[in-house]
Amino acid sequence: MDKVKKLLRDSSKARWTALLIVSFVMFAAYLASDVYSPLKTILEENNGWTSTEYGYFGAAQSVFNVFLGMLIFSGLLLDKKGIRLTGSLGCLLMVLGFALKYYAVAYIPSSDAESVSLFSWTMKKQVFWASFGFAVFGTGCEMAGISISKAIVKWFSGKELALAMAVQLSIARLGSGVALIFSPMISERLNNVTTTVMIGLVLMIIGLLGFFVYCLQDKKLDKQLKAQALEEGTKEESSFSMKDVKSIISNPGFWIISVLCLIFYAAVSPFFKFTSDLMVNKFNDVTPFYSGIFPSLIPFGCILFSPLFGAIYDKWGKGTRLMIIGALAITIVHVGFGLPGVHQIWVAVILLLLLGLGYAMLPAALWPSLAKIMPQKQYGTAIALAFFIQNIGLMLVPMAIGWVLDKYCVLSSFAGGTVSYPDNIKYDYTLPQIIFAAMGVCAIILSFALRRLDRKKGYGLDKGKKD
User: Fold this and answer.
1) How many other CB atoms sit within 10 Å of the CB of residue 412?
2) For residue 261, which of 151, 134, 388 has the smallest C-alpha distance?
């Protein structure tokens, strides 16, 4: 038997190629996820959606993950059956779910008066099926996301782990930026949202094929790992068991990171879905056609800064400090947008760039910190449980913001007949921004709590390679 001298992941070229492949999958997923985010105003004008219906739609991405426990199932599947099976299933569900979203907006007339009732909610037929598709897509997106996170840990542990995670986040958020900029432009120019959604569907199919290519590399690496373990007479890492779940949920570090994840992402990701509408309503010179440019500044800020903060974490640590500063940044931003006298576009640009900085800083430290706290065999379930908790916020917050807008924030409404912007519904976003800012304050408190726990338990979250 030939001795395994060098693993595939020891090759810088091989591991970074693997990273780029899975990063493109998440690029497509983020683009597909955010392709509707800047279209709230257009969906209200052309499809007759209300803010509440848009809020239900935004929340749908997390419904199956929360109520059916799909993320928990995904984590267990990942740790028991591996990255290739779980990731492939996730990519397939993303394609199927997004195809259903496309069918809803392309082939179910917005004028169809038929409604669908689900529990206490009644929605237009188009809204229901678009939301159902988003729920299927969301299940696949999180399944693929945790698989790719574990893949990065597998390929980069002991190497440039934080940097690799940050690069993956940057590429993924490039997808968000592209969607936020071009989605409203294409939809406004063509007077429909179907073409934009079709582009997202095509990219998702390419992403699925890309993940199959990654699987070939991953299979080769697994063969090398087994051969190496056999040659060296060492045992492969013991497989995951249900006892590990108890170990995970009894870890206080896991809970602080998970709740911080919930609060932080709930203060940022749902904001994406309302930023374009906020700009149109708060800044008089902003029209729907250009409104997507403004929220795109957030992911583009991440693209620039995430690799920097990842490299800082790898080299110097300072993980909890990065989290504290990131949480503080998003709080300042939401307070700034909530101030009644802020109507200058240049101020909005500065605030959105600052939000992008915070959105890069905290996650760049958050996910590598979870990898430090949890053994690799438990990582898939741990991150799935963290994503499950995160999805509770991602489900409830868009619903709450949409309801608050319709209930308390309407400044003017349709006078009757068909009218076009800016004579349609106008909103005051002060109250939603207060809600977002309050979540930012909670994220600051939790970041300090994690810092204190790290000093007590010695997780090493503030230590890097230099230490």
Assistant:
1) 11
2) 388
Instruction: Please state the φ and ψ torsions of residue 195, each to the nearest 5 degrees.
Output: -65, -40
- 306: nearest Cα among 357, 353, 360, 352: 360
pLDDT per residue as tens, the chain (467 positions): 444 567 888 888 999 999 999 999 999 998 888 887 767 777 777 777 777 788 778 788 888 888 877 878 888 888 888 899 999 999 999 999 999 988 988 888 776 666 776 656 677 888 888 889 999 999 999 899 989 988 998 898 878 888 888 888 889 888 888 887 888 777 777 776 788 888 889 999 999 999 999 999 999 988 888 887 777 665 555 555 667 777 888 889 999 999 999 999 899 888 877 887 888 888 877 776 676 778 778 777 777 788 888 888 888 888 899 999 999 999 999 999 999 888 888 888 899 999 989 988 888 888 888 888 887 777 778 888 888 898 888 888 988 988 898 888 887 654 443 334 344 577 889 999 999 999 999 999 999 999 999 999 888 888 876 65
Q: For residues 173 and 447, what is the distance between their CA atoms, to the nearest angstrom?
A: 23
Residues in CB range of 425: below 8 A, 6 or more apart: 44, 51, 410, 412, 413, 414
Burial group, residue 185, by CB count within 10 angstroms (0-12, 13-18, 19+) = middle
Ramachandran region of residue 417, left (φ > 0), alpha (ψ -120 to 50) or beta?
left
Residue with tokens 């739609």: 57
The single-letter DSSP state of residue 123 is E
* Contacts (Cβ under 8 Å, ≥6 apart) of 350: none
317: closest CA among 357, 254, 369?
369
Task: Please give the Cα distance from 31 to 296 (Å, whole number).
Answer: 11
113 φ, ψ to 5°?
Answer: -75, -15
Burial 6-29 (b: 16+ CB within 10 A, else e): ebbbeeeebbbebbebbbbbbbbb
- Phi then psi dihedrals of residue 69, to 5 deg: 65, 30
> Is omega for the bond preceding 252 within 30 degrees of 0, making it cis?
no
Residue 1, both tokens: 């038997």
215, 84 in Cβ contact below 8 A? Answer: yes
